[in-house]
Each structure stands twice: as structure tokens, then as C-alpha cells.
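Work Package 3 (structural annotation) set out to generate three-dimensional models for the target panel prioritized at the project kickoff. During this period the team completed the workflow that converts sequence records into C-alpha cells, so that structures can be stored uniformly alongside our sequence database. As a representative example, we reproduce one entry of 143 residues exactly as it appears in the project archive.
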Amino acid sequence: CGDSADEKQDSSWEKCDFETSLCKALSEFNLHPGWIRRNGQSGMGPPYSDHSGNESAYFLSLSSEMQSSSAALRTNVFLPTDEEHICQIRFHYWVSQMSGTLTVGLQKHSEDTVTNIWQVSRELRNQWNINTITINSTEKYEV
């Protein structure tokens, strides 16, 4: 459902909104240069609010110094259980007119390479968008 009413929210479900922290999934945030935690009131330019229109809500953004470079974020390791091998990651993203490409990759611990599983480039600019990625894996992985 569009309002997420049908999504299972049990003990393994975790929401990350950056309001109070950088979330357990991004514990190595300081190792990812270029990313900053900010809100629309920071005076840094668009976006001026989060995806719901809240100007004081926090989100992650690339620093203006990173315009000609790339920056990465890496989650903690996801460990599928015996019963559940499926994980859904839902995220909101903003692509500005100066942005390049936003890519989501998957690295299984048995592999040395990152496989791109989703990408967006220069479409629906200057507005918040949403995407959900479903991952089915029987082994440890990072996104």
C-alpha cells in the first residue's frame, strides 16, 4: 500500500529517520567523507525540508565540496535468519540539477565486488522521490 499499512513491523523492523542519530545502519558514517546530517533550516540551499515538508527534520546530504567527486555510504552487515531471507529497504532521495547519479549496490560477503541493483540519474530533479528495494539473500550482505 502507498501508506505502508501492509508492511510488517515486527521486532526486526527498524526505522531510520536521522532525527536523533545517524542510525544503526550507518554506524561508520565518519568513514564516509562528503556526507553531512542537516535539515532545511541549515541555510545550505535545497532541499529546504525533508520528504514530508518538515523544515526542521534531518536528512543526509552531500557536502557542496563533493560536486565533482563520488561519495559512498555503507550499511552494517545484514544477516538473514533461517525463516526470512528477504529484506526491504525503503528510502527517500532528492536529485538536484547539479547531481550526477545515485546508485545502490549490494555486496555479498562471499564476493569481492559490489553489484549495482538500482540507479537514478537526472530525472525528477529538485523534488523528493521514494524507492523500495527488495533483497533476497541467504548470506550476509551490505548495501
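The mean pLDDT is 77.
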